Amino acid sequence: MTAVHTARPTRPGWLLAAGTVVVLLVLEEVLTRTGVLPADYFPPVSQIVAALLPELAGAPLWLQLGQTLQGWFVALVLATALAVPLGLLLGTVWWARALTRPVVEFLRPVPSVALIPLVVLALGTGKQSELFLATFAAFWQLLVATTAGAGAVDQVTAEAARCYGLTRAQTLRWVALPSALPYLMTGIRVASATSLILVVTAEIIIGVPGLGAQISLNRAGGSPDLMYAYIIVTGLLGWLINTALAAGERRVLHWDAANRGPR
Amino acid sequence: MLEVTNIAKEFPTRTGTTRVVDDVTFTVGEREFFTIVGPSGAGKTTVLRCLTGLAKPTEGTVRFNGKKIVGPPPEFAVVFQDYARSLMAWFTVRRNVELPLRNLGLSAAERRERVDTALAQVGLSAAGSKYPWQLSGGMQQRVAIARAIAYRPQVLIMDEPFASVDAQTRADLEDLLLRVRDETDLALVFVTHDVDEAVYLSDRVAILSRSPSRIDEIVPIDLPAQRDQIGTKELPEFARLRAHVFSRIRAMVNTEPASAH
Amino acid sequence: MLEVTNIAKEFPTRTGTTRVVDDVTFTVGEREFFTIVGPSGAGKTTVLRCLTGLAKPTEGTVRFNGKKIVGPPPEFAVVFQDYARSLMAWFTVRRNVELPLRNLGLSAAERRERVDTALAQVGLSAAGSKYPWQLSGGMQQRVAIARAIAYRPQVLIMDEPFASVDAQTRADLEDLLLRVRDETDLALVFVTHDVDEAVYLSDRVAILSRSPSRIDEIVPIDLPAQRDQIGTKELPEFARLRAHVFSRIRAMVNTEPASAH
Amino acid sequence: MNRRVLSALLGVVGAVATVAIWWLATENSASVYFPPLSRILETAQEHWLSAEGRADIASSIGNLLSGLVIGVVVGIVVGVALGQVPLLHRALSPSIEFVRAIPATALLPFAMMLFGLGTEMKVFLIALGCVWPVLLNALDGTRSLEPTLRDTASVYGITGVRRQLNVVLPAAAPRIASGIRVAIPLSLILTVTSEMVGSHQGIGFVIVDAQNTFRITDMWSGVLLLGVLGFALTWLFGVAEKLLLPWEKRAERAR
Amino acid sequence: ACGGPELTKTADGRTALRVGIIPTIDAAPLYLGVSEGIFAKHGLDVTVHVADSGAALIPATVKQENQIGYANVISDFQAAEQGLDIKLVHNCCGSGADPAKDVSQVLVKPDGPIRTVGDLAHANIAVNSLHNIGEVSIKMALEKRGVDVSGIRFTPMPFSDMNDALKRGDVDAIWQVEPNVQAALAAGFTPLISNFVEARPEATLGYYLTSGAFAKQNPQVVQAFSDAMDEANRFATEHPDKAREAVVTNLRFNPEIVSTANLPTYPQGLDRASAAEYATYAVKYGAIEKAPDLDGLF
Ligand SMILES: Nc1ncnc2c1ncn2[C@@H]1O[C@H](COP(=O)(O)OP(=O)(O)OP(=O)(O)O)[C@@H](O)[C@H]1O
Ligand SMILES: Nc1ncnc2c1ncn2[C@@H]1O[C@H](COP(=O)(O)OP(=O)(O)OP(=O)(O)O)[C@@H](O)[C@H]1O
Ligand SMILES: [Mg+2]
Ligand SMILES: [Mg+2]
């Protein structure tokens, strides 16, 4: 599927977004400088940026960023690969949904923080623990989104598929999956943030190398500027990832009413 | 070939159930063009849904070649009344038409050829790479027709398939159906509101009463097998049949006061 | 009252833009019944969308009472071709019809009365508490019509509003429209594929050419103002006008080969 | 009718099977970290049914529900607004995405700074976490509103609050519901996070404290409780959804 | 549950050892042991793994992913009490005897409700983790000063959040350890007690530990680590500047803060007497239920 005419953000759109960000940053600066926000815990942006700049020049930050990014990506891909087929199944086969529902609902609220010691014991302190935690958290969110989406297939469309003898697999692929895509893409954006957050959390607590480990070190080492610098890098990473996902979404969902452009 | 025996259909309502189809029986033979007409809300779509196995009749059975129908048989193709929703917004017109062909064991070239032919037959050759939502209502309806024709079913079930096309295109499509029937030995179950169309196309026309519906009458259309838009419609027998069917429907719409429904 | 001046409409495509409407100009007077006919895909719906301000014409302007239309004016009501999708699945039929009335400053009793009347007029009094998805196609379409009528607009725009109802109901609804027009001084812009209907109802019939469309001809219908399903259709002038319009459309569908579109 | 009963039965079968597997797999476990389910259940009964345990549950549920409700309401309102005002959406989206990517644990100090150590801080954190899935779903659901419906609303002058309540919200409701389904377990998880700091009470506090002192069985009993609560909350939401969005399920069943 | 991962050797025959630690000044000798070649001399190739909390460190040690880990004395008791198979290997850090040089202080706001040590009897004190070393040592220290500790409340929060919490008045007093004590002093807070030193001078507060299984299978490796730590701790004690430098370079601690911070002591050997005393109080204050089996731990 190639994109047709999708509603891409126009140049003024970008300017507007950038402008808003600048306004917010200036606001923070003013609030901390004037003491409305306590500056010693919440350093002014200029100070954070000053701490960040030398880091940007060095390789370590980019290495850590790469580690985190890699963890995020693998976890999200794993979670998607597991959740989408299962979600389509659960969304289309009512008895499978009924059978697994209590278990799914039971497992979903299990906090990853509580799992950390168990995961470390089972998987160690390496990347695999980080991946497990992030995949675990993202998986449920994607599962819910896919299940709901697959259940939202237009009735007439589904009947057309049945009438033309599409097999179950074909119906999943060509009818249930595209119908679920709008839900799924939203789910991916929710789960992407979750995956990133869990990767960073695992880095903080278990000490897997990455941005989180730096946040933890700088917090322990009495450098709030640097700690915030790394938090900001994490936030920026989240924003970048989302921008990329949103662009991908516009291509994949170019047929959806949200992206059809002017009528 | 297709036997509908005493089917009834009830829907659950807040207070109990409503009986929408009361008792409908008919058979459709090989190569037969069987049309159902009746007032709006009579239960025509409901009968078609039972026929295809999409809905389960509350009572009675539907058999195809002697076998009870429980789900849509692969030999059937359907053009839905709600044609716009039956198309997949995420596929181009070509892909929509081609999709059902994938299970027929055709080569890619054969599939392409069938799609091309069907699109040309409904006058949409140039729209193949568009998406359904970029088409006009009538064009969408023709895509649904093309999909059904390309599938080359043994039984073609159509629910008001020409509701949104202009008179000339409609006439062309009517003749297309007759031609396809002759070429591929198709049986057709057809629903229309256009009495002229029903008489012109059909071998038999079943008139459904208001809901809870029964078959009011099945009118055999004894017109020459070879139909022709001008010649056939000028036959006195055509006018007679047309008037007969029309008066039956009118009687039904008017017997019960409009507000009572 | 409603002036459409040289409107054109282009849609973006992968490779550039397609011009769907090329150059359309007409005016609709007070109390006029103005009908647009044309081949399927001609651009009728597109013109209506520009007319109501739902779409912005690429070129040209639409004025209502001298004011340029940028969004749908409150005096307009529309029955969409895609009627099924225009109903809200979450509301009952009554609620669907009543919703637009909430802005008119009517009392609850007045609203109720208008809804009741409109539902009775389209023969759906008994269906008020059903949900749209519990209705047949034709009944859904009549809900959309009832909603428009209950709104008592100054301009009523209808896109193939009778496509899914049986012949008798259709005739009843046609006469209902004429009656409503006479009672409430309504102007109507109407799209239909049924040439008989167009001639029977209209004061003028505009014939649209194939897309990119222009007005091929605007045919004044000089039939007596008081129309009547039997009497009017027996007039020789009716037959002449009908034949004329039909031949124009046929010419357009046939001039360009079907596959070229 | 029939299917609903069968559904519930199947659910019970699934649950029983899972419990049985868990029970059998851990019954003879000597691992401190994976204690037998029987022991976990005993501990759970001891703690959570005691007066202290009930107070923990009450305090957590109070925070959780407040946070969840605030998050859901804010998510719907902001999402629906952004979905209809593209300019606003574009202006705010980078800032939103930025905040969304920051872990709740990293936001704790900020929340403490704003609200101190009390309940407000916890509710804030929970709400802040729950808002995202609801917001994004409301936003996307609003954006892909069926075009014909959109047109219908504008033609009949259905605008303002009336349009939001009668057209936009019901149309986006299935998506919003799926967002809320994600938010519910998230609110439980965030309850735990929020009780890691400055708390003496709550399910999260018990879990974290048990973890710090290596009382892993106690920790498991807390996790078990969270699972049960998650199930209960989702089930309650399902009931509410059926009442609020009746057309959804009925439209399907009717055929 | 026997066996465990095989130890790997480097090309020149040294045993590779992964040591888990949390990011504090306590880790300085460990880093010095690596950078000064002390471990190499004892046939060990040590890599240091930093984790934020014991929640991840202990299981990693039990799993023998880190052959050696770190935990403070109370955590050690708690882990042992819950049946985790751990064995203490060497002292990590201790309190010394000079209250002025204690790494640990309880501080209050100069104008706050708590002015004297006696006031702490009914204070709400921030600690990093409940039922742990902060709580136990504060109570010990206060009892030695004759303060009734039954009315004290403790509130858990990260060290880095404590200054603001105190400033806002969320808590009445905070327990800080270096290097955060420096930041707290800079914020103008008044130290009231040096709870580590006052609780028990010359105590050992944290131990390197390993899993029992590992200790049984590799007694010579454990011995080598212990010998190396003797040397590393001595080196760190003799070269406080290098100790400071080690945490600045390896843990990226803020050099300004570290330069003024007190260092803990890095005692030799494996101090059992101090553990015994802490065990008594840990039971008394409810951090553990019954006295630990020190023979099993040591
Ligand atoms: N899901 C449903 N629940 C309740 N009643 C229903 C449902 N579906 C259809 N009906 C009722 O069944 C009757 C027949 O509907 P059906 O769609 O079969 O009519 P139809 O003959 O196809 O009409 P039309 O020509 O208008 O399409 C209608 O009165 C309708 O209200
Ligand atoms: N969003 C769109 N993008 C691209 N092309 C479009 C779009 N909408 C409509 N068109 C094209 O515009 C032309 C006219 O469409 P329109 O719906 O106005 O026709 P119509 O006269 O109403 O036909 P019908 O009688 O079949 O409803 C068609 O060829 C259609 O493909
Ligand atoms: Mg029908
Ligand atoms: Mg149209």
Task: List the topology elements.
The complex is a heteropentamer, with 1 copy of chain A (263 residues), 2 copies of chain B (261 residues), 1 copy of chain D (255 residues) and 1 copy of chain E (298 residues).
Chain A (H helix, E strand, L loop, with lengths): L10 H23 L11 H13 L1 H34 L1 H14 L4 H12 L3 H25 L3 H9 L4 H39 L4 H10 L3 H29 L11
Helix pairs in contact in A: 2-10, 3-4, 3-6, 3-8, 5-6, 5-8, 6-8, 8-9, 8-10, 9-10
Chain D lengths: L1 H25 L10 H12 L2 H34 L1 H15 L3 H12 L3 H25 L3 H9 L4 H35 L8 H10 L3 H29 L1 H9 L1
Chain E lengths: L14 E7 L6 H8 L2 H4 L2 E7 L3 H9 L5 E5 H9 L4 E9 L9 E5 L15 E4 L5 H12 L8 E4 L2 H10 L4 E5 L2 H7 L3 E4 L1 H5 L4 E8 H6 L1 H20 L1 H12 L3 H6 L11 H13 L9 H4 L1
Parallel strand pairs in E: 1-2, 6-7, 6-8
Antiparallel strand pairs in E: 3-10, 4-10, 5-8, 5-9
The structure holds adenosine-5'-triphosphate (2 copies) and magnesium ion (2 copies).
The site of one magnesium ion (MG) has 4 residues of chain B, from helix 1.
GO molecular function, one term (chains B, C): ATP binding
Pfam families (chains B, C): ABC_tran (PF00005)
Organism (chains B, C): Saccharopolyspora shandongensis
Protein chain pair with the most extensive contact, residues per chain: A-D, 73 and 77 residues
- Measured distance between first and last alpha carbons of chain A: 21 Å
- CATH fold node name of the largest domain in chain B: Rossmann fold
Give the biggest sheet of chain B. Answer: 10 strands, mixed
Subcellular location (chain D): Cell membrane
Family (chain D): Belongs to the binding-protein-dependent transport system permease family.
Organism (chain D): Saccharopolyspora shandongensis
Domain ABC transmembrane type-1 (chain D): 57-241
Descriptive tags:
heteropentamer; A: 263 residues; mainly alpha; disordered N terminus; D: 255 residues; MetI-like fold; 84% helix; 0% strand; binds adenosine-5'-triphosphate; binds magnesium ion
Describe the structure.
The complex is a heteropentamer, with one copy of chain A (263 residues), two copies of chain B (261 residues), one copy of chain D (255 residues) and one copy of chain E (298 residues). Helix content of chain A is 79%, strand content 0%. Chain A is an all-alpha fold. Chain A has one domain (44-253): MetI-like fold (Orthogonal Bundle). With 261 residues, chain B is an alpha/beta fold. Chain B folds into two domains: 1-75 and 154-240, P-loop containing nucleotide triphosphate hydrolases (Rossmann fold), CATH 3.40.50; 83-152, no CATH class. Chain B has nine helices and ten strands. In chain B, strand 7 (155-159), helix 6 (167-184) and strand 8 (187-191) form a beta-alpha-beta unit. The two termini of chain B are 35 Å apart. The longest helix of chain D is centred in the C-terminal third of the chain and has 35 residues, at 160-194. The radius of gyration of chain D is 21 Å and the shape is globular. In chain D, helix 6 packs across helix 8 (160-194), helix 8 packs antiparallel against helix 10 and helix 9 (203-212) packs antiparallel against helix 10. Chain E is α/β, with parallel strands linked by helices. In chain E, 42% of the residues lie in helices and 19% in strands. Chain E has 14 helices and ten strands. Chains in contact: A-B, A-C, A-D, A-E, B-C, B-D, C-D, D-E. At the A-D interface, helix 1, helix 4, helix 5, helix 6 and helix 8 of A face helix 1, helix 4, helix 5, helix 6 and helix 8 of D. Bound molecules: adenosine-5'-triphosphate (2 copies) and magnesium ion (2 copies). The site of one magnesium ion (MG) has 4 residues of chain C, from helix 1.
